[in-house]
Design a protein that fits this description.
The complex is a heterodimer of chains A (595) and B (190). Chain A is mainly beta and 595 residues long. Chain A folds into 2 domains: 36 residues; 558 residues, Quinoprotein alcohol dehydrogenase-like superfamily (Methanol Dehydrogenase, Chain A). Chain A is built from 5 helices and 35 strands. In chain A, the strands form 9 sheets. Chain A has a 4-stranded antiparallel β-sheet with strand order 1-35-34-33, with no helix packed on it. In chain A, strands 2-3-4-5 form a 4-stranded antiparallel β-sheet, with no helix packed on it. Chain A is globular and about 65 Å long. With 190 residues, chain B is mainly α. The radius of gyration of chain B is 18 Å and the shape is globular. Classes of the chains: A mainly beta (595), B mainly alpha (190). At the A-B interface, helix 4 and strand 26 of A face helix 3 of B.
Chain lengths: 595, 190
């Protein structure tokens, strides 16, 4: 139930709370509020509270690994629905007929915090083996304004916690801080501007009292950025553009006379990771624009399609690693970089792992930004013959060539105006997150096994208009698309297993000591054996799974939770590749499982 | 860019169907039509334009454009006649993403002289909602009156479409180009 107390009552509550907080800060800390205050110390040490799930990606390294093992290989077959909750937010807006659910719930001390596609935040009390809605914060997102420039759905991937606040984003560009106790908005700040084609779909990353925000809009001619907001002062600390300004390092990788860089894309719509040892944020950067006419923007187009390492305090770029220079395929590198330490011949190797839309999984030395290994994780790659063993660049890449053609016979270009590419433009892996089991050193990738057809439309400066698509062509879906969960042994850089699925994986992965959880857009939530990837349990939710599973404890009992509601890009743009999914209804539901 | 295929032979057939199905239904069948000024006879068509999700591909301004779904044709630049628009809405466009919105199209009644079997792989998708013949006429009248032949979208036009409930129209307000955060000047708004 939405909290609907009268305004005065809420105000009084607010006053009481303020008084309580003030008292707490004076006398030291009340036990209750101290336990509930989220600070950097707790965010750095989430392993000390395994029953909670405090980060979007579970920890700063994006492992999405829980040590909870009440639910395990031996008993997972007994997993059943404990409770469910209907949420809202499926209304349409802009070019979208309905919203969907892509969020990861956050769990703290028996309470869940989830979002719907329009950015409403729900606090749910999970004590006592049932879910009770404590409050709902509806940010009243301007749906027509934002929905008209959201390329890929009415999406919101979740919240973060800081202090006594719930930190969230809205599609129309706001960073919102909500009082965790009352559900009242404490403050909000405009970070992105839909008038420029910018929207926000990702969850915030909290680093040292800052909320880090990424932006979407590379299909609308934005110039991407990552921004840090001081949560105490509500002021912007830094904003680093992902496309260099004139004269800045990397600006010489935009060699055109169209001023393409000013609308060059480089979005940042998937939450990144943080390495406290070096105070480094690592964030994935999206495609250049226009997507498919790379002759409009000769040069490597830095820092599009790159993993970017930033000094967390200043936002200054430390290193970058670009996967697909001068990309003509829409192969974003927005994916999360998973931070992993593995034993090496001369001490531990500190890696950043990224499963790229271009179909290759990469391990980068996260101290230097140098390539360590890479391999295809999809069954079919046609755009390149492979990666150079030294540099990790596609072997056809020629740094002296202004416009890359890679395997020219399949690559979209002004002389190859209609062509089929594998992976398709949604990529071998899109935003759905990977998971990493540090005991087994296995990294699990939610895979879209795909090809699709690209039609090129030659871009000209006059076609660049505010809030209009800037893509230089478009895809169609003449081929059936399937999926898999693919495991990579991080010690060897080789594929350890692949569990094929009838539909693409649009939800992502949760790893536990001996299990892997995932879902299908046809409705199934499943548990696999962590080593063999054999399916051990499955439940059909009757909706489309488009969000990652997570796990938590309350009253000492382990639960697995997942949001269910097919939305996003798939059922508008890619549905023809999976015609069976046309019958999946829009929905908005939280499922919670337990033994 | 897609090429617009005309189906002159089918137009007559469709017209006949539309006429045949044209019972004496009132034009203003939707409660929402009360929101718009009663003076504009094409308000019912505007409601259909939103309700049938024409905006999903053609956008509110009808210019369509590229993007992830391929090109939706510009209704502002279209040369289609009223009858051709009616046919296209009812029957969709074979071989493209333009859906058909007439109940029974290709099954109970032929479209472009084809049934479902004839259309085969060219069969257009089914619209998310079916429209009655009066609705199809209404949306065609709306397109003719407000979209076809119009130039670039304007602020006034946008506000007429959305009223003042959203910031969606702000971008069309006459104003100097905003200074971008970029040291490079923006190519937008120009």
């Amino acid at each position: 139930m939405e909290r609907s107390s009268g305004h005065t009552r809420m105000l009084r509550r607010g006053c009481l709370l303020v008084a309580a907080v003030a008292a707490a800060s004076v006398v030291g800390a009340l036990p209750v509020s101290a336990a509930d205050e989220v600070n950097q110390e707790r965010l750095l040490n989430v392993d000390k509270e395994p029953g909670n799930w405090l980060h979007h990606h579970q920890n700063y390294s994006a492992h999405r690994f829980s040590t909870l093992k009440e639910v395990n290989r031996d008993n997972v077959k007994n997993l059943k629905v404990a409770w469910t909750m209907h949420l809202g937010g499926i209304e349409g807006g802009g070019i979208w007929s309905h919203g969907g659910l892509e969020g990861t719930p956050i769990a703290e001390n028996g309470f869940l915090y989830v979002t719907d596609g329009w950015g409403s935040v729900y606090k749910i009390d999970a004590h006592g083996g049932r879910g009770v809605l404590v409050w709902k914060m509806d940010p009243k997102t301007d749906r027509d304004w934002a929905g008209a420039v959201a390329c890929c759905g009415v999406d919101n991937r979740g919240v973060a916690l800081w202090g006594d606040l719930v930190i969230s984003h809205t599609l129309d560009g706001r960073l919102v801080a909500t009082n965790k106790e009352t559900g009242q908005v404490a403050w909000q700040r405009n970070v992105a501007d839909p008038d420029k084609g910018e929207v926000i779909t990702g969850a915030p990353l909290i680093v040292k009292n800052m909320a880090i925000t990424g932006v979407a809009g590379a299909e609308y001619g934005i110039r991407g950025w990552i921004a840090a907001t001081d949560l105490a002062t509500q002021k912007e600390v830094w904003r680093t553009h992902t496309i260099p300004g004139k004269g800045e390092p990397g600006s010489d990788t935009w060699k055109d006379s169209n001023n393409a860089a000013a609308a060059g894309g480089g979005s940042t719509w998937v939450t990144g990771t943080y390495d406290p040892a070096t105070d480094t944020i690592i964030w994935g950067i999206g495609n250049p624009g226009p997507d498919w006419d790379n002759a409009y923007r000769p040069g490597d187009n830095l820092y599009t399609d790159s993993s970017l390492a930033l000094d967390a305090t200043t936002g200054k770029i430390k290193w970058h690693y670009q996967h697909t220079p001068n990309d003509p395929y829409d192969y974003d590198s927005v994916a999360e970089n998973v931070l992993v330490d593995i034993p090496g011949p001369s001490g531990p190797r500190k890696l950043a792992l990224e499963a790229d839309r271009n179909g290759f999984a990469y391990a980068i030395d996260r101290t230097t930004g140098k390539f360590v290994w890479g391999l295809p994780f999809v069954k079919k790659v046609t755009w390149t013959k492979g990666l150079d063993a030294e540099s990790g660049k596609p072997i056809e890449y020629d740094p002296n060539k202004p416009v890359q053609t890679y395997v020219a016979s399949v690559t979209p270009s002004r002389t190859n105006m209609e062509t089929d590419i594998c992976p398709g433009n949604m990529g071998g892996k899109n935003w759905p997150p990977t998971a990493y089991n540090p005991d087994l050193k296995l990294w699990y990738i939610p895979v879209i096994e795909s090809c699709n057809r690209i039609k090129v439309e030659v871009a000209t400066p006059d076609k660049l208009k505010a809030r209009e698509f800037w893509t230089g062509g478009g895809p169609s879906q003449p081929f059936k698309i399937t999926g898999s969960v693919t495991a990579i042994d991080v010690t060897t850089g080789k594929i350890a297993g692949k569990m094929e699925t009838p539909f693409p994986n649009l939800g992502g992965i949760l790893a536990t000591p001996d299990l892997v959880f995932s879902g299908q857009p046809s409705g199934e939530v499943m548990a696999l054996d962590a080593k063999s990837l054999q399916k051990l349990w499955e439940f059909n939710t009757g909706g489309g799974v488009n969000a990652p599973p997570m796990t938590f404890t309350v009253d000492g009992k382990q639960y697995v939770a997942i949001l269910v509601g097919l939305g996003g890009a798939w059922d508008k743009w890619f549905i023809d590749s999976t015609p069976e999914l046309k019958k999946i209804q829009p929905g908005s539901m939280l499922y919670v499982f337990a033994l | 860019m897609m090429i617009f295929n005309r189906f002159p032979a089918a137009v007559g057939v469709l017209l006949a169907i539309v006429v045949a199905l044209n019972f004496s239904m009132p034009t203003a069948v939707y409660g929402q039509s009360a929101q718009a000024p009663a003076t504009d006879p094409t308000n019912a068509g505007k409601v259909v334009f939103s309700r049938a999700n024409c905006v999903g591909c053609h956008k509110w301004h009808g210019n369509g454009g590229g993007g992830y779904g391929g090109d939706a044709l510009s209704l502002r630049k279209t040369e289609m006649t009223r009858d051709q628009i009616i046919e296209t809405v009812g029957c969709g466009r074979p071989g493209t993403g333009m859906p058909f919105f007439m109940r029974g199209a290709y099954d109970e009644v032929k479209c472009h002289d084809m049934n479902r079997q004839d259309a085969g792989a060219q069969m257009p998708p089914e619209g998310g909602t079916f429209l009655r013949p009066k609705d199809i006429e209404a949306v065609a009248d709306y397109v003719i009156a407000h979209i076809k032949g119009a130039g670039e979208p304007t602020y006034a036009e946008c506000v007429t479409f959305f009223s003042n409930t959203s910031r969606v129209c702000d971008v069309y307000k006459a104003q100097a180009p905003k200074p971008d955060d970029a040291t490079a000047s923006t190519g937008k708004d120009q």
